[in-house]
Amino acid sequence: MDFTFTKKEEKFRSELRGWLEQNLPEGWLKGNRKLPEDSKLYSQFLRDWQRSLYEGGWAAIAWPKEYGGRDATLIEEIVYHQEMVRVQSPPLINYIGIHMVAPTLMQMGTVTQKEEFIEKILTGEQVWSQGYSEPSAGSDLSAIQTTAVKKDDKWVINGQKVWTSFAHVADRCFLLTKTEKSEGKHDGITVFLLDMNQPGVETVPIVQMDGHQEFNEVYLTDAIATDADVVGEVGKGWKVLIALMLHERSGIAAQVFTLEQQFNRVVEMAKAVQVCGVSLIEDPFVEDGLADLYTRINGAKLNYYRNITHTLKNGKPGPESSLDKLLVSELTKELFDFAMTIQGHAGVLMAEEALFDSDMQAQYLASFGATIGGGTSEVQRNTIGERILGLPKDLGR
Amino acid sequence: MDFTFTKKEEKFRSELRGWLEQNLPEGWLKGNRKLPEDSKLYSQFLRDWQRSLYEGGWAAIAWPKEYGGRDATLIEEIVYHQEMVRVQSPPLINYIGIHMVAPTLMQMGTVTQKEEFIEKILTGEQVWSQGYSEPSAGSDLSAIQTTAVKKDDKWVINGQKVWTSFAHVADRCFLLTKTEKSEGKHDGITVFLLDMNQPGVETVPIVQMDGHQEFNEVYLTDAIATDADVVGEVGKGWKVLIALMLHERSGIAAQVFTLEQQFNRVVEMAKAVQVCGVSLIEDPFVEDGLADLYTRINGAKLNYYRNITHTLKNGKPGPESSLDKLLVSELTKELFDFAMTIQGHAGVLMAEEALFDSDMQAQYLASFGATIGGGTSEVQRNTIGERILGLPKDLGR
Amino acid sequence: MDFALNEEQELFRTAIRKYMTDLGKTDIARSVIDGKLEVVTRVTAGFAEMGISAIPISEEQDGLGLGALDLVPVFEETGRVLLPGIQLETIALAVPLINNYGTQVQKSNLLSKVAIGESTISVAWYEQNRGLTPKSFSTIAGKTTSGYAVTGTKTLVAVLGNPDFFITGAQTAEGKSLFLIKASDVASRKILSSIDETQQIAQLTFDQAPAELLGELGEATQMLDDALLHFNAALCSSMVGGMDELVHTTTEYAKIRVQFNQPIGRFQAVKHGIVNMKLDLETARSLSYYAAWAVENDTADKQTAVHSARSFISKAYIKAAADSIQLHGGIGFTEELDVQLYLKRARYYENYFGSVRDSRKKTAHSLGWHTKSTKQTPVPVF
Amino acid sequence: MDFALNEEQELFRTAIRKYMTDLGKTDIARSVIDGKLEVVTRVTAGFAEMGISAIPISEEQDGLGLGALDLVPVFEETGRVLLPGIQLETIALAVPLINNYGTQVQKSNLLSKVAIGESTISVAWYEQNRGLTPKSFSTIAGKTTSGYAVTGTKTLVAVLGNPDFFITGAQTAEGKSLFLIKASDVASRKILSSIDETQQIAQLTFDQAPAELLGELGEATQMLDDALLHFNAALCSSMVGGMDELVHTTTEYAKIRVQFNQPIGRFQAVKHGIVNMKLDLETARSLSYYAAWAVENDTADKQTAVHSARSFISKAYIKAAADSIQLHGGIGFTEELDVQLYLKRARYYENYFGSVRDSRKKTAHSLGWHTKSTKQTPVPVF
């Protein structure tokens, strides 16, 4: 066992750290981390940030050098996430493009697709969204009903997508459609690289329970795509989707480190907030609960390290990532639930009036998305039971 | 709302209490409640106790007067259970006969069956066991494989039963068999009133994890029954089984009151046991945990009272009994788990060397049977989900 | 032995539920979120019309002279639709305080107005960074020629619908005491942003506010402890109403939502999840009924009955709402569905006038666990 | 970055697992239940042959001079088969105590015998109705011409296989101190009945027993706290081994057991139940590896690493065993299956040398939560 970094990895970290100190938005490191509320300004702010990352060579470190990446090792990726979480960097507006679409195109895109999209993804000139879920296809993506029908060399697309992240700012969408009625439920699905800037595409934001609007409904009414927009083969889109999902090899890292940071923030609160002159943390129930959370959150991080070790030794990740996802998302919910409880009645206060952290209550509400988005905890448990433990397949699968 | 008893009910209680004081085995009320270890002496002790109950008119209070019962009301039954639990009365050796078999025979037995069995059940002359479960038919009783085949006016029975309570002391068994291969999985089942005293019946005790031997395996090798032993119709045994199970209208009462008594015992322990001169209950975590358990155990009792009220108003019990069973059995496990934890390392000591109660550790181990026997918690949850909430039927049912 | 609401109480429930349905159920709560606070005044009038606000007020003060059990159907049904406002504070906290400790004049002046819906009263007790049972107040009351003058700042005060009076706690030479202060005598009021936007809470500053003593000097804690039994019993009913609605809507959703070609209620993870909510609901309802019964009948075990009920239900309500969000999946995370409103309300009530830990501690003390003398009866009283 | 056992350690695991399989897995534990205590002596010899008992002993004393990480595969595999005996007490508690605090003579006399399997040593610390970190002992040690004489009664002492020596705690004028006492000098020994019948615990009475001081006078608590880091890291591995076996057997059972015409592992209540066991197992294993790594490398966070691991694993082991019984159904409740033995072992270890609450308290203190000065680093060390 060895938890140290090599000199090369430490050099990588300090290079990144130095770059961040120079290039993060004005006042960011001093805690002025408010993003513009206006949708256009918000989008521009994040596009500028991605442009800046691109120019520094930090937008897509895991990509091959030939495409403008750094050929970063898995450990370098982890260092990257640690540092990004540490400074609470602005979100990457083209996350989907960089971490999912482009690597998939590198693997199975046509020469034209590679030329047309990959560089624009890297520079942030072109922002991507993903269009998988539908009102009737949430956990069960094979149930999608959006159709693409070929008419005179064009594909005419109709249907509705939901939970389409970044759709309101996106130029293109990685879109799952049904092109044939078929027996096998994973057959007849085709992936398009849909141009979002056309009349047939309408985007309506979804208001979340925490008040944020990070996702959208997308209504497709005779939206148009061409053969050149198809990824892989027509009718074989399920394979493309699986390939895309496997491209996030360091996927959970940011969440692991974020959870740890959030935990430390809750501890700070328990030390700082006093009731009748006594810090919350001096209450044995607060101490006990936090020690338990510390242990399990640290355990989740250590699990992740074991899985990375496994990946490094085997050259590819195993199904253990669903284990990490499940643990981290459930712990995020538990952490903020506990943080709410210990604040007492003053915990109902939000934003500027909040007892300690103006964001704590909002993070509590946001935490409910963690065990739903990206595969519900129920689906994760099925995956773990079936893929890791080899238990029999569930009903209807 | 009214939690008082009528004068008649109070009179019933004091009559029973007076009788118990006079008739419980020597020294019982002073805490000398050890049953004989030798199997024969044990059986004789319990038969004597049932004979005594019979002679006092307390063996089957809910039975109609014509059969030797008291036509007791539901509330009187509850009072009866309260008093029996209060004095921790010896177990009723013919529980199955009195609470299940005889009421079923009264409802659907032949005249001969009624004459032959009911009085003997009441006096304890004939002890009954139940033969439902099999190695491959636990939660799923419809999967039984014990066969009864008609040969020359006799039924020849072969198979294996398991979890057959009282089989080692029983004279007769209420036996579930398969008499026809059939499509519908509840068809082709026939119930026999099997004579246990015959060469084809072999009984082997099952040793439980708490060391007790309350149940048995019963091996049936060309065991013989006659047409006169069939309850209801041949092939319609599933209906008989359902009828039998519905006859326990006050079924959960004893468990509810026992749980409450056990809880009070744990509180006594927490007050009495001291570590470094301080009672366990002065530890805030012990206080908090016990207050939580108190609340939920009391809640389970109050649920039971609401269900009784419902039964009194509607004339028959609803499916809510599965709710009571689930809560009480799960709480029993939780209670003893907590009782183990708070005893510290000395909690590993058993029997005479136990920290407080010579029986606490054994009760902890026994509690694991509560959520398995009589329908596992998983099956109870299905029943509640489907019968009370109307959710769709499970896989395979 | 009869552990159920009586026929009249169930009929009353039906009437209130109909009224709430007519008002559009959670539409009222959503109106408050949208800033249309006038709906609350309409509800207060409706309550008076139906005789709800008169329930616990004696006939001398134009009330109905009924008890805590008659409030059970009321607050279950208002809780079911997350009715915003300070009905609980007025009817189940201020009224018992005035009823038990007020002078004849105070009763006449205040209670009949509450009964006919012309007045609501809130309670301003909490001070910043103090516990819910503070050892002392920084708010102080000084004697004046005509009564008292109170100076200090209170926070987390429920003010939706603009109550006419506040019952507040202040320090006097004789100890912690309760006072009545007219809303018009509040020096300043600052609305605070709350996780439950269907409620409105404020910080109130008193600056030599004219105040009338309520009850005896130095008796604030004991008076409030006693009145909080009424309040907590009613609060429990309100939370039970919310839980009941959550179980209902989650069950119905699980029957119709199809994934993997199955209604999701067929999957045990979903089915058993809802069953667990149902189990908690049944226990919560039993405990809340018993708490109200104990308060109404002033039983020896009323402390235990109320605090144990509160300790369970506060937690179970949050869990029911949180689990319901999860079982609804993506749609449960949106602002469109009501389930998130139940979560926020449950959170709002979690520590209101006491935490779960506080309630458990009080349960333990009321059961005599920390005194050598008390002994449990071997047979439950019933 | 490499968070896994190395190849040698995994090979060692394979060897030990093979040895345990040759011994019939849990047959050894069941032999002890049947009173055939001689199996334990055979195991001690086998351990010496395989070099296990020499692992943490330095080469000067005929040991291998290896560290806590090399004990991980050993105790995972012995825990997997519920190996009875005092291997943990000898190798992971007595040895570190003697190694760190013993004189050269004590090391020479005691450790080489342990290394070659000729001696086992247990620890007699607990006194009746005292906590696990008593403020004072009623057992006392008086100075004699040749050393000390100890008088008093210890209980819950692990004695399976008849250890040759006991390390015990006694009160002296200088405070709580540790002593070495020969088993032959114990005045009387009473075997106690334990929930885990695969172990043997006793009450020991010392009556002016000749005793040798171990370490410095008055330093018992500090010495024990330090050595318990070794012990708890090893104990965690042992519990992880048990959990691993539980997950394995429960999974296999769920694949073959058919009810309602389905392998029960197809039902989500069963499937997700096993998945939850698996999640706990993974966390337990990660925490135990890290604890052993921290002890081996004497890191600054070793207190946190060990106590947090222990706090989680003690509880998770009980839960895994309890859930496994439930998932097995009726057969799980019988003496025939091993799963009940795991439950009893888990319970036996729950409060051994400290409770879950104790471990959490120590975790909190080691993280500096109660001191104003300590600050968390914003980026995790790794």
UniProtKB/TrEMBL annotation, chains A, B:
**Residue span(s) of domain Acyl-CoA dehydrogenase/oxidase C-terminal:** 235-389
Q: Which Gene3D superfamilies match?
A: Acyl-CoA dehydrogenase/oxidase, N-terminal domain (1.10.540.10), Butyryl-CoA Dehydrogenase, subunit A, domain 2 (2.40.110.10), Butyryl-CoA Dehydrogenase, subunit A, domain 3 (1.20.140.10)
The Swiss-Prot or TrEMBL record lists the needed cofactor(s) as: FAD
The Acyl-CoA oxidase/dehydrogenase middle domain, residue ranges: 131-221
Query: Which of UniProt's keywords are assigned here?
Result: FAD, Flavoprotein, Oxidoreductase
Q: Which domain of life is it from?
A: Bacteria
- Residue ranges occupied by any Acyl-CoA dehydrogenase/oxidase N-terminal domain in the UniProt entry: 7-125
Against Pfam families, the record matches this protein to: Acyl-CoA_dh_1, Acyl-CoA_dh_M, Acyl-CoA_dh_N
Q: State the family it belongs to.
A: Belongs to the acyl-CoA dehydrogenase family.
Note the PANTHER family from the entry. Answer: ACYL-COA DEHYDROGENASE, ACYL-COA DEHYDROGENASE FADE29
Q: What is this protein called?
A: Acyl-CoA dehydrogenase family protein
Q: Which organism does this sequence originate in?
A: Planococcus wigleyi
UniProtKB/TrEMBL annotation, chains C, D:
Source organism, top-level taxon: Bacteria
Acyl-CoA dehydrogenase/oxidase C-terminal domain: residues covered: 228-355
Ranges of residues in domain Acyl-CoA dehydrogenase/oxidase N-terminal: 6-118
InterPro entries annotated for this entry?
Acyl-CoA_Oxase/DH_mid-dom_sf, AcylCo_DH-like_C, AcylCo_DH/oxidase_C, AcylCoA_DH/ox_N, AcylCoA_DH/ox_N_sf, AcylCoA_DH/oxidase_NM_dom_sf
Q: What keywords appear on the UniProt entry? A: FAD, Flavoprotein, Oxidoreductase
UniProt cross-references to SUPFAM superfamilies, sorted A to Z: Acyl-CoA dehydrogenase C-terminal domain-like, Acyl-CoA dehydrogenase NM domain-like
Cofactor(s) listed:
FAD
List the signal peptide residues. none
Q: Which Pfam families match?
A: Acyl-CoA_dh_1, Acyl-CoA_dh_N
Provide the family line: Belongs to the acyl-CoA dehydrogenase family.
Entry-linked PANTHER family: ACYL-COA DEHYDROGENASE, ACYL-COA DEHYDROGENASE FADE28
What is the name attached to this protein's record? Acyl-CoA/acyl-ACP dehydrogenase
